[in-house]
């Protein structure tokens, strides 16, 4: 499969010119090694036991290879991370090391130290990275001079297909019949093999899977963790300490990707709630966990074991999950954060907010329909009244055909037309 350029590529290219080491982290199979390999002069694969043994015999010699040195799957030998940090202390030239990892091991301190390592998270493919031509730039929206126009060829069925296909490159571009078994195998491997490798072995082998399935059913909601636990079949329920351990191990595997609430402390938004919005790293995994396919999404079904946490079909929910993935990927090119807004009383909420430390915001609402009406933009207008000039733009992401601005200035953009 030919390499498909990623938004993170430009971020990595900048960083290797500025800092000694860059750690590219994220879930298994998102494409970390392929992106890092493009910049590396030397590659060390620590997942290979033979190569790992050679490195462990003389780490200094291995790290002295031509730079940048790519240390792939560094978590298989955490001492190599420490050796790399020591090497950077001695010689802090930019572009010395690239590190990739699919697990954040317990007990290993992964931090930048005195400017040693910059950590960058890589997520699955956005729609722009999958080949959809983008005509509206998130970067231009952020800078206040976006041209909002364009026509999308993506039908509603195309969004359902993209959700089910996932953004994992090897799965997304596999044959259609292979995708669901591959996604199911991905989940099975994480639960049955990778979690135990982190030292986590639940007493009931299926209990971790049951919890992950319940979490997936809560995608794009701020459901309490107690509600998620209560949605699990009674015979598979676990104690709070155990469910906290589930969250911990799944986070270490980068499978959970919750959207944090917009930080408090903003004078004009004092009444915000603090709960994160639940998201799995890729909505394709949600479909695998809940037994959904293209037809069931389009037919309005919710999937197995989702009823206790849902009051409607999952297509709209997973459309928001897909939009969240895309916006996060595009925002990463500008080093911007992505959060959500929900007031403590629940009377106002904004699906996604891109923001910077200076207080500026770019707000997105996600709608499964094609043409938003005034009711669909009421929360964006509420936010505009509160934030004034600090709200740089308001956008509704849709499944429609055309990108345009409404008379009130709100941009309406088909998700397939949005790019970095």
Automatic annotation (TrEMBL):
<feature type="domain" description="AAA">
    <location>
        <begin position="20"/>
        <end position="129"/>
    </location>
</feature>
<protein>
    <submittedName>
        <fullName>DUF4143 domain-containing protein</fullName>
    </submittedName>
</protein>
<dbReference type="InterPro" id="IPR041682">
    <property type="entry name" value="AAA_14"/>
</dbReference>
<feature type="domain" description="DUF4143">
    <location>
        <begin position="203"/>
        <end position="368"/>
    </location>
</feature>
<dbReference type="Pfam" id="PF13173">
    <property type="entry name" value="AAA_14"/>
</dbReference>
<dbReference type="InterPro" id="IPR025420">
    <property type="entry name" value="DUF4143"/>
</dbReference>
<dbReference type="Pfam" id="PF13635">
    <property type="entry name" value="DUF4143"/>
</dbReference>
<dbReference type="InterPro" id="IPR027417">
    <property type="entry name" value="P-loop_NTPase"/>
</dbReference>
């Amino acid at each position: 499969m030919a390499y498909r350029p990623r938004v993170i590529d430009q971020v990595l290219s900048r960083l290797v010119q500025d800092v000694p080491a860059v750690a590219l982290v994220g879930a298994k199979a998102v494409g970390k090694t392929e992106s890092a390999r493009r910049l590396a002069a030397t590659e060390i694969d620590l997942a290979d036991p033979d190569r790992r043994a050679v490195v462990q015999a003389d780490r200094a010699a291995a790290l002295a290879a031509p730079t940048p040195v790519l240390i792939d799957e560094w978590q298989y030998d955490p001492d190599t991370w420490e050796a790399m940090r020591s090497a950077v202390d001695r010689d802090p030239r930019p572009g010395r090391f690239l590190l990739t990892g699919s697990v954040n091991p317990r007990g290993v301190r992964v931090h930048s130290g005195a400017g040693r390592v910059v950590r960058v998270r890589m997520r699955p493919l956005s729609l722009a990275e999958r080949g959809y031509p983008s005509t509206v730039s998130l970067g231009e929206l952020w800078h206040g001079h976006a041209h909002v126009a364009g026509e999308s060829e993506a039908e509603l069925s195309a969004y359902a297909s993209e959700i089910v296909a996932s953004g994992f490159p090897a799965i997304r571009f596999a044959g259609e019949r292979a995708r669901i078994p591959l996604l199911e195998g991905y989940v099975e491997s994480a639960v049955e093999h990778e979690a135990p490798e982190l030292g986590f072995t639940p007493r009931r082998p299926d209990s971790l899977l049951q919890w992950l399935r319940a979490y997936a059913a809560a995608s794009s909601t701020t459901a309490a963790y107690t509600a998620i636990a209560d949605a699990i079949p009674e015979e598979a329920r676990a104690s709070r300490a155990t469910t906290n351990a589930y969250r911990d191990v799944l986070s270490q595997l980068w499978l959970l990707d919750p959207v944090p609430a917009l930080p408090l402390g903003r004078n004009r938004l004092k009444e915000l709630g603090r709960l994160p919005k639940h998201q799995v790293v890729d909505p394709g995994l949600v479909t695998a966990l809940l037994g959904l396919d293209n037809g069931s999404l389009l037919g309005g079904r919710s999937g197995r074991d989702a009823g206790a946490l849902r009051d409607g079909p999952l297509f709209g929910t997973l459309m928001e999950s897909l939009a969240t993935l895309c916006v996060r990927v595009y925002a990463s090119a500008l080093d911007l954060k992505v959060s959500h807004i929900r007031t403590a009383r629940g009377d106002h909420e904004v699906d996604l907010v891109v923001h910077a430390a200076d207080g500026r915001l770019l707000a997105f609402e996600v709608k499964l329909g094609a043409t938003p009406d005034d009711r669909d933009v009421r929360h964006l207008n509420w936010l505009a009244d509160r934030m004034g000039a600090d709200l740089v733009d308001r956008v509704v992401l849709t499944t429609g055909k055309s990108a345009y601005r409404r008379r009130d200035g709100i941009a309406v953009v088909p998700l397939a037309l949005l790019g970095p």
